[in-house]
Amino acid sequence: MLPPNMKHFLFLATSLAVTVLPTANLHAKVWTAPLDQIAKVGPEGAGNAEAAEAWAELTGQGSEIIIPVLEAMESAGPLARNWMRSAVETVFEKDLAASADLPTDALKIFLLDRNNEPNARRLAFDLYHRVTPNEADAIVPGFIDDPSPGLRREAVARLIDEGQNLLNQERKEESITTLTSALEAAREVDQIDEIAKLLREKLDQKVDLPRQFGFLMYWDLIAPFDNTDRGGFDLAYPPEESIDLNGSYPGKEGKEISWQAHSTSDDYGMVDFNKPFSPLKQVVGYAYTEFNSIKARSAQLRLGCKNAWKIWLNGELVFGRDEYHRGIRIDQYILPVHLDEGKNTLLVKACQNEQEQDWTVQWQFQLRVTDETGTAILSTDRKPTPDATEPARRRGE
Amino acid sequence: MKITHLILCALLLSITAKADWLNFRGPSASGYNPDATGTPSELSDATLAWKVSLPGRGLGSAIIVGDKVFVTAASGPDQKQLHVLCFGAADGSPIWERRFWATGRTMSHKKTCVAAPTPASDGERVYAFYSSNDVVCLDLKGNLMWLRGLTLDYPNASNSLGMSSSPLVVGNTLVVQVENDSESFAAGLDKISGINKWKLDRPKAANWTSPTTLNINGEEIVALQSSKGVLGVLPDTGSRIFNFEGGAATIPSSASAGDSLYIPSGGLTAITVKTDGSETVKHWNESAQRPGTPSPLVINDKVFIINNAGVLNCANRQTGERLWRIRLERSDKSATPTGSFSGSPVAGAEGFIYLFSEAGVGLVVDVSGDEGEIVSEIELGETILSTASLDNGAVYIRSDRHLWKFGK
């Protein structure tokens, strides 16, 4: 038999549990349902009306929704992530303006957890920085090997500044060490370029940019097929059916053409059809190479091309675009793919059109393989970057 | 009683005397707002109301909705951070800012940028559009209403040089032109939900022009310009009303006045759409009146163009006959030259045209007389690629880094 005090205690404890537990459940659902709704936004505006209601519900809450929403970005598509980002920032600004408590410690924990979604982590850092800029600045160096490109960039920028300062002080060896570390860590094109320029031009260092970027330098090329009136883009010439590097085919105007080895020594992996085939108009060329992956994995093909192009991986068309001469840049097109373990085949089709202006001469492309952070994935049998003086070699040679 | 009546009338007049500038080039997207009164005749430190900083890059014009000014920008290494900013029109105080990640491609020529299109408004919402083909709808308080990633939906809808067509709200439809060499289209989006009301395949050619509207028989018709000409459609359904097939420029947009359209085509071509909407009537074509980058401007019975040589031409709207022309140059030859113009001329009720050159020189041209006269010049010290916006008593202009308000 329980003593009266214990009975009273148990009664109170039970009452409290009955009151608190459902409330705790209800509190947990405050952001769950709206987040589920936002995650459902789909193509062509599907789910927008419901998402707007859910967004209003979320932003009517306080900063307790910030971390759950950041976490929800992990499994969200790009549109849903934008809805979530906007909700987080709206609530943050509201509470900041009201001098309400903000989850500063939780933001720090979230952003330092490398398993969290990279954009969400960067957003968390920005918010953390708004509240405690000095503490946020103090953790930047730790991002030097971070999987989030947005965070890593900050740390690389610091190293570049440091390296530049050492150079200005004529502490060259230290500058080389610092900038070399920066280069190893850098993933963004503008930073890589900046570092390479300093190392090469100011410190007389060699920099293997193609390797740094992961450009594919060895190809077999075949051209020209016909592209009169831009019709070649849609025509499936023999390389699109099968690859026989010893084969010959009727090309433009019936002339027999065959594959030829080609390598590029260009810093940015530019494969220039004009070099072996001379500047031509209204033609199609193909480039073939093989890429050995150490394991099956997701990756990105990052292409730059100002001609109309198509690209196949392992015989499957990945994407194509029929735009001519609107510009070229590194990572112009980022194509998510899946690499097989071992050998992967890559075929690029580049079409030259009829334009005669001097800025339409180029018939070329550049291609690199990276992971989603922009880190180069190198073929297991990658050959050294060709020297400019070497003759063209087939990839197996 | 009489005094009360007078006070009520005065209040009513002040309430109704709004001159919102809701989209690129204001009313009918044509650059002229006869309701914008009191705009300054002078651009100077004395008339500068305020100047605020902007993030990243942007060349879309500001829009003015009531007492708020909205502008877009894009920042970050690849301009992947999209911004929508709201300022108080009276003092430039920041009211809110919303940011988004671009979901489409952000590559563009270095002269232009991702925040090139001007946002649009229906008076209750703001619609921001970017070269990445992201569309963001917010209410005037910054609450998110809807999002679209048009490149997510249509993966080849992009232009490696960048896109700049500005959106336009017509009735209940947000009209967007996403015209390029590959997956080229124009669409009418439901302004409340962002869902497609219609989508038209368009010529596969890069196109940086923006839609305008004509008033035909009391109905607003959207004019979609491309290298092929101008297609007129009903805003609600995208149904074809007229088709002018004489070709047109892909950079300067048309200007409308009532049921007439002044198209950068073979120089400048004036058409009217017949009252039943079935045909267009070409009134005149002047090959010598060839707009450069800036779009033409119609003010009452005159049409103005700025050619590539930096000359402002004024022509009779009915005949195309040139009335006068002036070179847009500094009075002080030792001052920063005016240079070329990317932004288009705009005008309010006072008879002043406002334009800003790439070199950052702002000009006020008085066109109320028989000849145009430059009455004010200012150097802003920054590259200006944008078109000015007007409100009662005010002129707004932006660069990448700043937004200025001149006037009251």
| Topology pattern of chain A, helix = H, strand = E | HHHHHHHHHHHEHEEEEHEEEEEEE
- Overall 3D shape of chain B: globular
Broad CATH class of the largest domain in chain A: Mainly Beta
For the residues shown, what is the average pLDDT of chain A? Answer: 92
Instruction: Report the sheet with the most strands of chain B, covering strand number, pairing sense and barrel closure.
Output: 4 strands, antiparallel
Biggest interface goes to:
A-B, 39 and 37 residues
In the CATH hierarchy, the architecture of the largest domain in chain A is Sandwich
Q: How many separate structural domains of chain A?
A: 3
Quaternary organization: heterodimer
The mean pLDDT of chain B is: 94
Integer-rounded radius of gyration of chain B: 20 Å
In terms of DSSP E residues, the strand content of chain A is 15-25%
- State the major sheet of chain A: 6 strands, antiparallel
The whole-angstrom Rg of chain A is 28 Å
- The strand count of chain B comes to 32
CATH domain class of chain B = Mainly Beta
Proportion of strand residues of chain B: 35-45%
